[in-house]
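Reopening this one. Same input as before:
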Amino acid sequence: MAVRYEELRSNMEKRQGDIAEILNVKRNTYSKWENEINDMPVEKANILANYYKVTFDYMLGLTRNNIFVDKDLFIDWDLFTERLVKLRKDAKLSQEQVSEKLGFAQQTYSHFEVGDRRPTTLKVLIISQYFNVSSDYLIGRVDNDTIK
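Same output, byte for byte:
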């Protein structure tokens, strides 16, 4: 993910401080996200995806296709929980089985399904890869589950 954050920022000829201002965080906070020291909150990554006009899938490295997005897309956390439950049930897995396969604590995964807790970008990436669905779809930015 760090490669895409830096790549996108460099392509826009922006400094880390410029992006930090856009995200309303300190420069060192953004620097830690870009250098993968800390994981960026999904809400902040959504701001960047809209700013750069790219898909979440591209930003997270799920695809190499840099598809131009001509409008701002928004996260729908209710859809996220619905889709997460549906994906698990379609795979005929328990929460315990999924959390084990993903490497999350079962309680953490359970909180995602009921909407008590929101995942970070890394967890969205892991879930999307496991279920082979678009991260944009998973977080409710689009209705098509295919990674393009």
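So the earlier flakiness isn't reproducible anymore. For the record, Residues 5 and 47 are 12 Å apart (CA to CA).
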